[in-house]
Design brief:
Length: 524
């Protein structure tokens, strides 16, 4: 029977029956009766085995709709959650309508994507396991992007209490901040005395220094203690300028849950001598956890104002964390990343796969695309900052879109060349063409982001870009300056300078060795 023909009467029936079933069963019912399901038989000729029951849970749910007192109904695996009024009345908030439409099945090892939506296992994993624990989330970093990501993640944690703990920790690099008289939070009894940024965040729910004017969710908790902020968290989101990540990892190494999983929102690379490492891999190695990467055409202030944009998350679910459609582990202790042995995510936690990452980061104003190309996503995000500086210089010099387009095109060529040369066989070219992390980020970064803006001002004011960073950004950091220096030094160590004229030219302009008008002749 095709569920699309079940129609309104059955929808009412499902709503009524869902009161006596678990919330997950309710989700299944609503999914089925809203006509998105496959063809389903409504009865069985003989009772199936228990495992078949679990595998075919949604079929049985359909059977349960038609015969709620049948033996199949008695055998349905139950979720620990009892249906609430909200489950009954608001099926649209169920996992079917929000999660499954966006997320895809965890990819196999060789970077494939756009795989079918994982509906079966989503049900099984929600019902076979009890998920006594919920994921505790910590955001490490509270700058312009750090606070914006913390805001959207906290909104999702409040909306999905079945998967995440409501309160989200945000580690704040503590500093004293003075509220100006015209601030709406100005308190005459305190006057212009400096106050701790964490105090301001937890009192007024606004990051007055790095994200002024944006109300933050009250379940976002600012914490000045790094060790305390990461305690017992199963999800760590790294979001601070890349130059600080080494120090952060050293401080938290012995204090994180061994099964924690990370996402790095940092755009940068780690370079030592002639070695280059992606930030997410640096984190993975330093902490012995698995860490993916989030990157895209994302201007923090726009997203904080809930203006729509897209992003890309690269996550290659470790074998030790993969679960089959019945929610059982499929890995055997191996790891698909690097060579280390990872501590598996305990089974009493909801899985951490593409679906859950998508659930954690997707907002109506923030569309997430899940992929597994860690290298492509990370390098695109880090290296475009060099090209953005080049574009700002070109524009500051008085050249316009045509010159900038030439720089962007050549810059993208160099990014892809760099990825192929130093991370051979590890990128998917379509990341650069199809994903927000690729050309999308290149365009926004070269037309409206901070690296572009400061380098443009540097030429216009005839000042070093570092000076402009200090005077214009109120403590925010440009990643492009240090990335240019690190990448140039790496290229010199490899004797590869000639193949990367854009990257090398930017370093020479930052150091005031050459002028912008000399750029074209470097390309010959
Ligand atoms: N801002 C954006 O629009 C945006 C968008 C996408 C990605 N990113 C990336 O996100 C990452 C974080 O950038 P951001 O915009 O949140 O930061 P930011 O530049 O706004 O702020 C700098 C942060 O560094 C902190 N800090 C200063 N000294 C420190 C120290 N010694 N140790 C630790 N922290 C210290 C400050 O407290 C502040 O939180 C960067 O890699 C950036 O490229 C930024
Ligand atoms: O403001 P920037 O230059 O750090 O860039 C911000 C984002 O990376 C743009 O996607």
């Amino acid at each position: 029977m095709n569920c699309s023909r079940l129609g309104q009467p059955l929808l009412h029936q499902a709503r009524y029956r869902s009161r006596i079933l678990s919330s997950d069963a309710a989700s299944v019912f609503h999914y089925l009766v809203q006509g998105q399901g496959p063809k389903l038989p409504l009865s069985f000729s003989s009772p199936p085995t228990h495992s078949a029951l679990r595998r075919r849970f949604y079929v049985q749910s359909s059977a349960a709709i038609s015969k709620p007192t049948s033996p199949f109904h008695q055998q349905l695996p139950r979720s620990p959650q009892i249906a609430t009024r909200a489950d009954v009345l608001e099926p649209a908030s169920s996992l079917w309508s929000t999660r499954s439409s966006r997320a895809s099945l965890a990819p196999p090892l060789n970077n494939t994507r756009h795989l079918p939506v994982r509906r079966y296992s989503q049900v099984a994993k929600m019902t076979v396991n009890n998920f006594i624990k919920k994921h505790k989330v910590t955001v490490i970093g509270s700058g312009n992007w750090g606070t914006t990501v913390a805001k959207l993640v906290a909104e999702n944690c409040a909306e999905h209490p079945d998967t995440f703990e409501k309160d989200v920790q945000m580690w704040v690099y503590e500093e004293n901040v003075t509220l100006p008289k015209d601030s709406k939070h100005f308190d005459a009894s305190i006057g212009e005395q400096p106050q701790k940024l964490t105090h301001i965040l937890n009192t007024y729910h606004e990051n007055v220094k790095y994200l002024p004017g944006i109300p933050l969710p009250h379940n976002l908790v600012a914490n000045p203690s790094l060790v305390d902020a990461v305690k017992d968290s199963s999800i760590l989101i790294f979001n601070l300028p890349h130059e600080f990540i080494g120090n952060i990892c050293r401080q938290i190494k012995d204090h994180i849950a061994p099964y924690a999983r990370g996402i790095s929102c940092i755009k940068g690379v780690s370079v030592t001598d002639d070695k280059i490492e992606l930030i997410c891999n640096y984190v993975s190695d330093a902490l012995n956890i698995y860490c993916g990467a989030l990157s895209g055409a994302n201007i923090a202030s726009e997203i904080a104002n809930e203006q729509w944009c897209e992003t890309t998350i690269a996550y290659n679910t470790p074998l030790v964390d993969r679960r089959d459609e019945n929610g059982r582990p499929v890995g055997n202790g191996e790891s698909n990343d690097h060579t280390k042995q990872l501590t598996p995510l305990p089974l009493d936690y909801p899985p951490l796969d593409h679906d859950e990452w998508s659930l954690l980061f997707s907002r109506p104003y923030f569309t997430v695309s899940m992929v597994s190309d860690i290298v492509g996503v990370s390098l695109a995000g880090a290296l475009k900052n060099i090209v953005a500086i080049a574009c700002g210089y070109v524009e500051g010099h008085g050249w316009n879109m045509t010159a900038k387009t030439a720089v962007m095109r050549r810059g993208m060529q160099e990014i892809i060349r760099f990825a192929n040369e130093f991370f051979p066989g590890q990128i998917e070219p379509r990341t650069f063409w199809e994903e927000s992390a690729g050309w999308g980020d290149m365009i926004v970064s070269c037309t409206s982001a901070r690296n572009w803006r400061c380098s443009k001002l540097a030429v216009e004011r005839n000042l070093p870009i570092e000076e402009v960073e200090k005077t214009e950004l109120n403590g925010q950091k440009l990643q492009g300056i240090s990335t240019t220096r690190e990448v140039s030094s790496f290229l010199r160590a490899k004797g590869a300078e000639e193949r990367y004229p854009v990257f090398m030219a930017v370093e020479r302009i930052i150091d005031q060795e050459i002028k912008v008008e000399e750029i074209p002749k470097l390309f010959k």
